[in-house]
Amino acid sequence: MEPPLLPPLPELVIGLIAFAIVFFFLAKKLLPTINKSLDERREAIEGGMEKAEAAQAEAQQVLEDYRAQLADARHEASRLRQEAQEQGVALIADMRSEGRRQREEIIAAGHAQIEADRKAAAASLRQDVGKLAGDLAGRIVGESLADASRQSRTVDRFLDDLEAKAADQKKAEATR
Amino acid sequence: MSADQMLAFETDCHIFDGCGFPAPGLHSFLFEPIFSIGGFDFNKPMLLAVLSTVVIIGFFWAAFGRAKVVPGKLQMVGEAGYDFVRRGIVYEALGKKEGEKYVPLMVSLFFFVWIMNLWSIIPVAQFPVTSIIAFPAALALIVYVLWMFLTFKKHGFIGGLKNITGYDKALGPILPLAVVLEFFSNVIIRPFTHAVRLFANMFAGHLLILMFTVASWYLLNGIGIAYAGVSFVMTIVMTAFELFIQAVQAYVFVLLATNYVQGALAEHH
Predict the structure, then answer these.
(1) A11 → chain B, closest CA residue
(2) Distance in angstroms (rounded) separating the CA atoms of residues B199 and B117
(3) Structural domain boundaries in chain A
(4) Among B29, B50, B61, whose Cβ lies nearest the Cβ of A4?
(5) For A26-79, how does the pLDDT look when each residue is reduced to its tens digit (9 = 90+)?
(6) Which segments cross the bilayer (chain A) (predicted)?
(7) Hey, is the C-beta of B36 within 8 angstroms of any chain A C-beta?
(8) Which among A37, A42, A43 is the top mutation candidate for probing chain B, defined by the most B β-carbons within 10 Å of its own β-carbon?
């Protein structure tokens, strides 16, 4: 019986040939094929990652732009609000001063009217009082005071006396 | 086959029948030629070796023949095996840049050894081709030649010798002893152990499975049936264990081959 550690030559040769065939096919054909495919896959993955990174950067950029625009819009809005408020305040002040002016005008006009009325009333009163007093005095005295000028002079003198009296009285009141 | 080489199945012999236990032995590793051409006998291990070639090339052809960027199932399995050897063994020891050149050899070695081992538990085949020393020896020889070639190519003749013998002046007076020992260890023992480690593992594994299988049959008589059951369970356990050992031995074989290449390429210290 052959010792088990002595390699028989035919098996050795067959083993070498069988391995050579395996090595030839794997090294020359199949492993290069799979390496190529693995490289392609790695490139595809890396390309995809680059694309994703670019998309992310773009999204970031867009977000920043959007935020800037939003901030601008906020500024604009607050500016407009401020402006509107200022305008409103100015408008109110204007209207108020205008109103005041008109009121004063109206008041002044009223005062003038009253003064004029009073003067007219006083003048008319003076005439009426003079006439009435003349009639009354004529009737009492029985003497016709037809002479208008004399009559008028008398009345005026009488009224002046009255006014002077009234002025004296006023002065006395003021000093008191 | 002569009478002493017959297995229990063929003799229909059981315990208590007055016949001895037909123990498996060296004869279990000898095969009658299937056919002969001239003086050349083609036997079962050779057939299985050739079939290994067919299986490996067939598988990788199916997996990688039309490799796609998006892999199919078979391609994924193939890539897993390829990557296991490439990254797990070659890149680990040699680095990516230097190792790339040796990837095809190591991948071929791994799958060739593994499939030849695997026949041990494939029904009908049921014989690990690597338990015939010639097959591991052929592969170890290839690695040995590559290792020697690389050593002398990288370091020149003197440098190569120094690399092989672990020449180091710092050793002082024991330098001659160390050089002689290293020379024997590397140049003579190393290829021998490289081949025998694989051979002996598969040889022993096959013997164990045979032993329990034959015993299961032989014990199948009377009270022996209980023992036969135990033996049968052991057969299954050993078969599962062999499945593990086959892969481990293929791994170890390629790992050592890679380490030898690394040693050849390494700068001497």
Answers:
(1) B134
(2) 10
(3) 9-145
(4) B29
(5) 999 898 988 898 888 888 888 888 889 999 999 999 999 999 999 999 999 999
(6) 12-31
(7) no
(8) A37
Identity (one letter) of the amino acid at B251?
Answer: Y
Domain boundaries, chain B: 30-265
User: Tokens 């299954």 appear where?
Assistant: B236
CB B146 within 8 A of CB A20: no
- Most A CBs within 10 A among B28, B29, B56, hence the mutation to make, goes to B56
- State the pTM of this model: 0.70
Separation CA B217–CA A31 (nearest Å): 46
Answer for the pair B49, B129: CB distance below 8 angstroms, yes or no: yes
> Mean pLDDT in chain B?
88
Tens digits of residue pLDDT in B177-228: 888 998 999 899 999 999 999 999 999 999 999 999 888 888 888 888 888 9
Contacts of B142 in chain A (CB under 8 A): 16, 19
Q: How many helices (H) and strands (E) does chain B have?
A: 10, 2
> Per the CB < 8 Å rule, is A22 touching B56?
yes
Q: Cβ separation of A11 and B135 shorter than 8 Å? A: yes
Phi, then psi, of B246 in degrees rounded to 5 = -60, -45
DSSP string, B143-196: HHHHHHHHHHHHHHHHHHHHHHHT--GGGGGGHHHHHHHHHIIIIIIHHHHHHH
Residue A146, pLDDT score: 60
Under 8 Å between Cβ of A15 and B135: yes
Asked if A27's CB is within 8 angstroms of B108's CB, the reply is: yes
